[in-house]
Write a structure and sequence with these properties.
heterodimer, A: mainly alpha, 6 helices, about 85% helix, B: mainly alpha, 8 helices
Chain lengths: ~120, ~150
């Protein structure tokens, strides 16, 4: 599983690197593109097999975040109908976002900006 | 003389257009190694949680949270920028890159105050990701909802 995670995760990052080098996309655009791509691939039923195959190699990169958004939406739609269209995606992303917000806020309180080299 | 300089310029352009970009190859190798390594770390954390008795989905969520917090600490300590210099997309594409994009401006703009500095700048990159991610999940969710109705 570790080897599969390494190879698949590494390859997804190579796609990102090629986009940065060849298209001059900014990292922000890459992140947006990858999250949306993961969401669409999830909806098409293509990302679930990849996640099954590669584990963290597919779920740790940003497309995995997009896939989690779609999966959350689908699960909430199964559970509570139309309301799930609105609640499911953000619910699935909430742990990661809350951790990033909370951690970053504490970091901003405790640390000062580093001098640019 | 001027014409020769012009010809040389044109020649350089042609050479640049034809030679394969070896820097891209090196960048890709670095992105592959670093991105792969972060995923292996994620897999290890995930395995720790599943063997501690957590279900598949909670284990994945906790893995994301741990990686996010780890990245925030490395960002605040100024180390994630150094990793990024080496790894390129290998440090941007994993979820740690998302956390870095939240933490780096939060620390950098604290001078501008807690509300408009830390609070607002935090989402300078993460905001678009969340906006388009939410929109995409709603569109796909809507399609899923329609197909379920039939």
């Amino acid at each position: 599983m570790y080897i599969k995670a390494f190879i698949v995760g590494g390859l997804i990052c190579v796609i990102g690197q090629l986009l940065i080098d060849k298209t001059k996309f900014t990292p922000a655009r890459i992140l947006v593109l990858f999250v949306v791509a993961g969401c669409v691939l999830g909806a098409l039923g293509l990302y679930a097999p990849l996640a099954e195959f590669a584990g963290a190699g597919a779920t740790v990169p940003l497309p995995g975040f997009g896939y989690a958004l779609y999966k959350g939406a689908a699960e909430e739609i199964d559970r509570s109908g139309f309301l799930g269209v609105l609640t499911g995606g953000l619910k699935a992303a909430s742990a990661g976002i809350a951790a990033a917000v909370c951690g970053s806020f504490l970091a901003a309180l405790c640390f000062n900006p580093k001098e640019k080299e | 003389m001027n014409q020769q300089a012009l010809a040389e310029e044109r020649y350089k352009e042609l050479v640049n257009a034809v030679t394969p970009d070896s820097k891209t190859g090196e960048n890709c190798l670095r992105a592959f190694l670093c991105g792969g390594a972060i995923c292996v770390l994620g897999q290890f954390i995930n395995n720790c949680f599943t063997s501690a008795g957590f279900g598949k989905d909670p284990a994945a969520s906790y893995t994301a949270v741990i990686l996010v917090l780890l990245s925030v600490v490395l960002t605040a300590a100024g180390l994630y920028a150094k990793i990024g210099k080496f790894a390129g997309a290998g440090s941007v594409v994993p979820i740690t890159g998302f956390a870095n994009a939240v933490a780096a401006p939060a620390v950098e703009f604290k001078k501008e105050g807690l509300v408009m500095g830390v609070g607002a700048r935090m989402f300078i990159v993460a905001g678009p990701v969340i906006v388009f991610g939410t929109l995409a999940s709603m569109i796909m969710g809507l399609i899923y909802w329609f197909t379920r109705m039939r």
